[in-house]
């Protein structure tokens, strides 16, 4: 500090020079001097500050206490250093603390430097090599650690601030996204369902009216924006900003059940069919509302089918009236047999559980008929759509063209009524049920015969190509091992709705009724006939003589179908004779 | 030969007394496409159909009172289709609040010998015209957009001349008498066609 006051003396001189004399920038040819304009206070300060050489300045400070090394060097530097420091002093108040700090730091650094240089010469001081390492190494490590810690803390703070901003903006955009998402969902909904705006509501149409349905249910649903979600909580995965509200009577799931049973003695417990399917599993990628709407539309269609069937059941006059009880329609296709069509509609899970005991019952669904019912109602829809043909000439009213032809073509009553009459859903489905029943029973009859009787063999070849009202089966009766000798009997059975037509290979056609016994008897008689023929063929091959052969002998017990036939054969040498008579019940030998 | 007595009593069609509810308007030829486009959007989803009809209007004049008018119409596009004979009554007066013109209407499908039959009965053809255009339906509503043409040579429908540069637009419903709700439906449908065409209740008597 003494140095400072000492160096103040020459500083006065320097400052006077600088303030009085301006530097000559240029001397022109005519001797005029151009001066450099004097620096302003701040410019001057900046200029001076640039000239500060702290290292040198402090070195000079350190010189006195140590005072031994490189005196010549220091003296030179001293002058410059002093000059710089002095120039800077008078106007250095705002910089004072900075300067002081730097100075103290430099002082310490210089002490350190000098000590090191002293130690280096090893004349006056020596450092223990063991203790030297920790001192030299430790200090910078601590420094490094602290600086590292500080910079890391700053960096960490910056990152935290950034993260905060990001999370805020994410939350904001999510809110916007949700808003946009509703509109996107609405657009999606619009592309699949009919929507219209009524007041401030968005209503949709579930009904099949545009497809030709005449069902009176309005079938409207409402589109609701799903807003009851907490923004702070995590959004559930199945969250959908759009929800639909369907009429309460279309909720849940429904299906039509068709079954054929042996007639129950009592119909008191009818009308309470309660079989429910599990709710369909959500297909991946389809929205909740879509599943809901599809289920509701299915309920609507089932209701329409059932309404149509029950209307027809009441209107149509049949020999055995159809019974409509609660959610069940019962019809008698054949005596002792009942066809029941029921509408099963489950609204809540609770009911589902209650109905679970019923599930233990055998599953007697006739899926084919259920499917056909759906197909039939759609055909019906299509018919109503296509029936609306434009009238020609254009002034004519909207009536079916054939009906308009009735007057000019002078149709009579029967022709008109035949025009108007079309088979209803119920009639068609009853016919289909009859056919299905007849077919399955025919198959069962043939199978049971085939398993019961080993000789001759019965083979049945069912045709793949069939109709809802007709199918056919080819029946072959053969004797195993003797196919070469005796021809097999081939029968073509055409199974219809009410009866079975049998076509022989020789073209004879026999019509059997729906009674199981008739078919069985017929097949038995064919089999026994085949046996007699086989005996005849075999006798010929073996060289036996046929003494007599008759397909219709008037002997024995009267058979219900056909007459008994008999054959008598004699051995080649005539020593033995065998007589075979066959009847439908059994063959005697 | 004396003309048969003519009754001025309204004709009723059998047991059900059908009424025609009618709104009419017209559209210039240039705007036809946009109107058809709008109608296709509004009406039932059936393939749009065109028609070409020939209408003959027959009169039976009595000694006194108004002549009795019958309209016979046949389709030129479907020659085998039956003829259409139509009686239209006088528009019902009264009820100004009703949105559509209401008149008695009897529709009969007839065989192809209808003109001869009418002639035999003493009817005389008053005028004839050809109407070609488009027909739409929406439920019970029938919309007919047609161009009317004058027949230059009587009976020859190939030689015609358009009556005007516009198309006639008719919105009609056939309903039993007293069902005034249909006129409400018609009005709301007509609203949807604005401003392409203004369908109004036009009293033909005022124009005569």
Automatic annotation (TrEMBL), chain A:
This is Uncharacterized protein. It comes from the Eukaryota.
TrEMBL record, chain B:
GO terms for molecular function: transcription coregulator activity. One of its GO terms (biological process) is regulation of transcription by RNA polymerase II. It is found in: Nucleus. It comes from the Eukaryota. Keywords: Activator, Nucleus, Transcription, Transcription regulation. Coiled coil: none annotated. GO terms for cellular component: core mediator complex; mediator complex. Gene3D superfamilies: Hypothetical Protein Pfu-838710-001. Component of the Mediator complex, a coactivator involved in the regulated transcription of nearly all RNA polymerase II-dependent genes. Mediator functions as a bridge to convey information from gene-specific regulatory proteins to the basal RNA polymerase II transcription machinery. Mediator is recruited to promoters by direct interactions with regulatory proteins and serves as a scaffold for the assembly of a functional preinitiation complex with RNA polymerase II and the general transcription factors. Component of the Mediator complex. Belongs to the Mediator complex subunit 18 family. This is Mediator of RNA polymerase II transcription subunit 18. It comes from Pangasianodon hypophthalmus. The gene is MED18.
